[in-house]
Amino acid sequence: MNCFDCDTSGLATPAVAVCNGCGAGMCSGHSTSMPRSVQRPNGLGQSATPRSARQMHCATCADAHIA
What we know:
Protein name: DUF2180 family protein
Pfam families: DUF2180
Structural class: alpha+beta
Organism: Actinacidiphila rubida
Strand order of the largest sheet: 1-2
Strand content: 35-45%
InterPro entries: UCP037465_Znf
Shape: elongated
Order of helices and strands: HEEEEEEH
Number of helices: 2
């Protein structure tokens, strides 16, 4: 799989990740790593784990996630 953003520019760069938002392949230059809180059931509610998980986003989805 090649990076979607590089491919639209005419380059064939191998993808190293898949966007969590849209599913597009991304190279290391077009990917953004963002923390994601992990929730687990705890009695009648939920509690967050002390460590965050990692989620990868393309530039378009990262901008939409932050907005």
